[in-house]
Design goal:
Helix 1 packs across helix 9 and helix 2 runs antiparallel to helix 6. The longest helix has 24 residues. The chain has ten helices and eight strands. Strands 1, 2, 3, 4, 5, 6, 7 and 8 form an eight-stranded mixed sheet that branches. By secondary structure, it is an alpha/beta fold. 38% of the residues lie in helices and 16% in strands.
Length: 298
């Protein structure tokens, strides 16, 4: 790669907590001389990508690394009687406080968050308005988070229509397009960390624990048969993985970084350290094996 061929359009895929690997991907790229000029992301890819575009990735990484299991559960705000299990206001509020909220058009890095319009099923590109309004729409996983209202439209998770959104970057004038697919093939590593009981600290925490366990999304697969929510989420992930393979075959990025789909469960946000390290590892491997070596970028 020539001295000039260093600008990047980065496509960050959907995949729940596996999206923490995006942090490691971005860290490796920037440390090795690649200048990210454009980002398109779906779901967790939109969250990490938007925060990087705002120049606050390291603050987010520090926050994510400090999260314990109980703190993740405390960020859940049940939306009883509404169109989803959780409202998502608590976590978005914390991130707004940590990162600040900006107009997307004013960000130093071009950014597109992808969502789906609930009524029409159409793909929506969010390129203006408040950053966290766009992120909230893109991460609205059906059943888990309530839909987001943006510009009079009800929007849900972008991974449903475009889990690895290459199309928003096609007109970029960058040197490389790099895509991160969070639905890569299974690898022989643990699917999830051992489950731990939450200390008996107060009634609120115990009720949250009981609620999560009733959904059967924090238990090990061998512990019991999957519950309704677990089945729905696994089915959704299988659909997204199929769409991702078709999108990647159609658009062919210069470099594809594959994160194994069994790296963690969708909700295991307390595993930031190992997932960030995994992102760095897979990025180094992807560049070392295709001629785009790190030394060539410096």
């Amino acid at each position: 790669m020539s001295q000039q061929a260093r600008t990047v359009s980065l496509v960050l895929g959907a995949g729940g907590a596996r999206g923490l690997a995006h942090v490691g991907v971005i860290q490796w790229l920037t440390e090795n001389g690649y200048a990210i000029r454009s980002i398109a992301g779906s779901s967790m890819g939109a969250l990490v990508g938007g925060i990087y575009a705002a120049g606050k990735l390291e603050a987010y990484a520090e926050w994510a690394l400090a999260l314990e299991r109980m703190e993740v559960l405390q960020l859940l705000d049940p939306a009883f009687g509404r169109a989803g299990l959780f409202k998502g206001e608590r976590v978005i509020g914390q991130l707004r406080g940590l990162i600040g909220d900006s107009d997307i058009a004013a960000l130093p890095v071009s950014f597109t968050a992808v969502a789906m319009e609930l009524e029409s099923g159409k793909e929506v590109w969010l390129r203006e308005g408040k950053l966290f309004d766009a992120i909230r729409a893109s991460i609205a996983i059906p059943l888990l988070l309530t839909p987001a209202s943006v510009g009079g439209r009800l929007l849900v998770d972008g991974g449903l229509v475009n889990p690895v959104p290459m199309a928003p970057t096609l007109n970029d004038s960058t040197d490389l397009t790099i895509a991160v697919n969070l639905g890569g093939r299974h690898e022989s590593r643990p699917v999830s960390a051992p489950s731990a009981r939450i200390p008996d600290e107060n009634d609120y925490r115990q009720r949250i624990q009981a609620f999560i366990e009733s959904l059967q999304i924090t238990r090990e697969p061998a512990a019991s048969a999957p519950g309704m929510i677990d089945i729905a989420l696994r089915s959704m992930e299988a659909m997204e993985n199929t769409i991702a393979r078709l999108k990647l075959a159609a658009y062919s990025p210069d470099v594809t970084i594959e994160i194994p789909r069994n790296a963690c469960r969708i909700h295991e946000f307390w595993r930031a350290e190992e997932l960030i390290a995994l992102g760095r590892e897979k990025t180094a491997k992807a560049f070392g094996g295709n001629g785009f070596g790190a030394s060539a970028a410096l």
